[in-house]
Amino acid sequence: MSTINSYDPPGRLTDLDETGLKAWNVFITNSIDQAVKGPDAGQALNDSPRSQFYDLTRTDTAADATEAPVTWTAFPRRIKVHSIGDNQRWQRADASRDVQDEYCEWSITRDPASGKITQVMFTCEGPEYWDLLAQSSPATVLQLYRTHISPNVQQSDLFGIDGSYQRRNRWNDSTTHGAMHLIQAANTLGAEIELAAAATIVRVIDGRELTADQELIQCGKYGEPERNSDPHIGGAVNAIARQKADIALTNPVGLYFDDLRTDGWAAPDGSDPKSYWTYRRGNATHPVRAVYEVPADRNFTVGDITINGTPIQYGAQIADFITIRLTAVACRFGQSTSQPQTACVQFPPPPAGPAAPALAAVPLSAHGYRSSPAAPSSLTTRRR
Q: Would you kindly state where each structural domain of the chain is located, as residue ranges?
């Protein structure tokens, strides 16, 4: 198998023009470059290089290639772990997009008279794509918001006075006024790429090879241990790396909806509850936007559907049954000559005295991610 010419947009979306497509490829390849290199010794110890991680545009994918999908539950595990009972965790998860940290965020619409849920919109689109689209075509951004969120969206709602796109705007900053793309701090494509690359490092500590999800993430410090996603992604990637294989994220790089399971669900008229789950953006195999909504010609709403006998009162009840997916590709099994790291990741202490800390230029997110490249600040392309 040969290299690919360029990376496609998430979901193979068709919003970008030719210049935007080139800029998107630059963003992904730059992100992968940085992830392969890893931090230098002044930023973190025992965390580079990541030589088993590769770029599909520069390195061949060998004939023994196999795809490895990784899936996890969309409901935020940290909320579940630290809540007492279902009603509390559902209420807390519905209260803020900032706690929806499993690469899936949602917003709920209710009937103003009855208070019943009429629609829940879900997104797993990374914000970097929207930053770039806003540079390429602000009019397209406005049109997409009007199509998927509300016809009342105005350009001034989405862009600052300097013309810059506002990821968190009045139509994309809450669980009640719409969810166009991800905004939670750790829910970025850059974080996905960094996590996958960091997890390719095999670690042998005191003569023992680490294999468990939690010990790997605690040692590699590549994410939040209490999430569903991060430890599971890291563990799955590391299991392949331990087979001395090279690993990449499949094209198009992104987070995607995997499925909605509706076992135990019931609609008042006996219809199939899963039929009300529809994908609105992305292609059939890479959906990035979903809506759960009962058509207007039915005599009931989402709030009348039950899950194991309990009516749907929260969007979070649906998130319990959604799985999110990323897919890696692995090849050249048994051929890697990369040596294991024999120590866990360490962050050097800041220097003594008034000098700026060494890590100041490489801030960590609230969830422990190293910073990843931002979307290009201008639509220029790099010479290849």
A: 10-361
